[in-house]
Specification:
2 domains; 29% strand; 3-stranded mixed β-sheet; single chain; disordered N terminus
Length: 188
């Protein structure tokens, strides 16, 4: 049906509003409140982490670090030995993780998933990591400060009975006990 507007008039002849939704926004006081759905209850972090570890393992990568914030940002630091991590692999891991979340009844759209590679200051967690990076400079974060310092620089020598073996500043070798340190990272 075709309507015509009389010359000089901005209203159609019948008195209807012309083009009711033609890019005009109502005044803020006249806007209807938007009803938002109640957010889904936060999932158990251990479930999300277990799914992430399972999916990463299926793609041949290891989860070195993980965190889930209150705003549902899931951050994973992934490593693959000896091959490097590339963008295609990260894309496949994210896609698989979203599918796994959906299969468990969690809305994958609620999560902001951030995947990273370890980088130059990577965390060393396993005896395999300690052997792989033997000879490199590391920063050891201590459980309790020693000589007023919360961390020390040392040369990583490898692992002895699964524990880190380092050469400290005075050149002596030392096996670090699990209660002595909180983390070891590459310093270079």
């Amino acid at each position: 049906m075709r309507r015509s507007i009389e010359r000089g008039s901005s209203l159609p002849p019948s008195g209807e509003k012309p083009y009711p939704d033609a890019g005009m926004k109502p005044h803020p006081r006249n806007r209807k409140p938007v009803r938002k759905e109640a957010p889904q209850q936060a999932p158990d972090a251990s479930l999300v982490f277990a799914l992430a570890e399972e999916v990463a393992g299926a793609h041949g990568v290891e989860v070195l670090e993980r965190s889930l914030t209150s705003s549902w940002a899931l951050r994973l630091v992934l490593d693959r030995d000896p091959d490097p991590i590339n963008a295609g692999l990260l894309t496949r891991v994210i896609r698989s993780l979203r599918e796994a979340l959906a299969a468990r009844g969690l809305d994958p759209g609620l999560f902001a998933i951030e995947l990273e590679s370890p980088g130059a200051r990577r965390l060393l967690k396993t005896p395999r990591h300690l052997e792989r990076f033997a000879g490199r400079q590391v920063r050891v974060r201590l459980t309790r400060p020693r000589d007023g310092r919360s961390s020390i620089l040392a040369r990583l020598l490898g692992a002895r009975d699964g524990r880190p073996l380092v050469a400290v500043e005075d050149g002596s070798e030392r096996v670090l006990e699990p209660g002595e340190f909180t983390e070891i990272r590459l310093a270079e």
